[in-house]
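Is coenzyme A placement plausible here? Inputs below.
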Amino acid sequence: MFVSFYMEMYEAKKTTAHDAVASIADRSNLILGMGAAMPPALMEAVASRAKQGWFTNLNVYYMHASAAATESLLVPELMPVIKPHPLFMSSHDRQLAKQGYDVGEEWVHFVPCLFHQAGRLLTESISPDCFVVTVSPMDKSGHFSLGTNPDYGATVVRKAKRIIVEVNENMPRSFGECLLHISDVDMIVENSPPLMETIIGGGSVEDEKIGHFIAERIPDGATLQMGIGAVPNSVMSQLVSHKDLGLHSELFSPPMVDLIKRGVLNGRRKTLLPYKHVFTLALGDRDMFDFMDDNPSIVGYPVSYVNNPSVIRKNENMISVNAAIEVDFTGQVNSESIGGHQFSGTGGQLDFVRGAYASPGGKSFIALHSTAKKGTISRIVPHLTGGAVTDPRMDVQFVVTEYGVADMKGRSLQQRAKALIDIAHPDFREDLSREAHSMGMM
Ligand code: COA
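Reply from A.M.:
I modeled the complex. Tokens:
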């Protein structure tokens, strides 16, 4: 009986993408769902209105632009009126920023942010005028699921002035705090293209070595957070003989599915939400989305919960693994900028570096190849060159390259410099040591 009641509501709110976005005002803030939850039809409709001259200045907030975003809304011709404000730069954003620089303009307005604060920032620091997001089909109780992307979306759907959803049959239905009731939705559009997929290629020899150094320091029963990329994937491929691991991770990714299927990731010894695989953002392939769909053991929560260091620390033996661009002699880490340009973002890195070290028995690992640009530059450097500090030196614990592991905790500046030079590429160690001497650090 209430099924037909909700279906009536559904039909009443259902409209075309074109009509749905007509309610988005000029000079307002539009928030997009993140990554796979970016709604292609709605973005295309906003782009079409922008081309028709309906906007003079529309601020667009998001993280991880998908190809659908960069093929519709985030295109050079719309930059006079569409103002992209990413909280994390994807390769698409970098390309757009560069196209802007090439014509002497700032097109991309990056907003620095700790990921666990993203929901608050998007609902308190700016006015959340409209939120557009891809959701799974409605269930019989009138709930849509945010599926792959609770992240900031789970906060914004509670506070944005206007909520427009794009219902996609390919969006998995996930559990946790991931639901949105039809009574809280203003307009519904249906569109079911394949979801954005993120495929990470096989790792290098260096990734394997780094993965080995980290995997051998992970005890049975630990709870894992793994970032995106070849190193975390390599670590996970080397955990197949571990026992009773748990997951409390910003990211849910395909190698985690493999460990769940093998019974290695079972959550049995977790001290927070045992037996549940906790995530806030999923990036992967269709097989992974199918595995997530209607799977009650995989639970998505807002990033304000998952990435909050005071929540992370409730998991004993919490292990955090993230990648970096460069580390200076004192242990400061830059994971987001290259040559003064914003390359990516802080994301949840510092959240987990802090949360893991605050966990009883916890450890945080920062992983990087010893060199970049085909071996021509060292990533262990006297001073950071990128322009941003992602992890302050007081927070950093283990730094790992293919040459070993350097522990920063409890070490003096001199000891840090020596430990880091010991894991730098051998071709650079002499020059780095000379530099450290001249800085009075050795
Ligand atoms: N100087 C100059 N260029 C550098 C460099 C340095 N010190 N370090 C890396 N680069 C270049 C590489 O050569 C590479 O260029 P290419 O694509 O032309 O080969 C590019 O930068 C990317 O480097 P790579 O190490 O392959 O990056 P990645 O894709 O593995 O990503 C981070 C690494 C650090 C950028 C990424 O993990 C990140 O953004 N982290 C911050 C957010 C985070 O950790 N979130 C955690 C939870 S998901």
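Short version: DSSP finds 16 helices and 26 strands in the chain.
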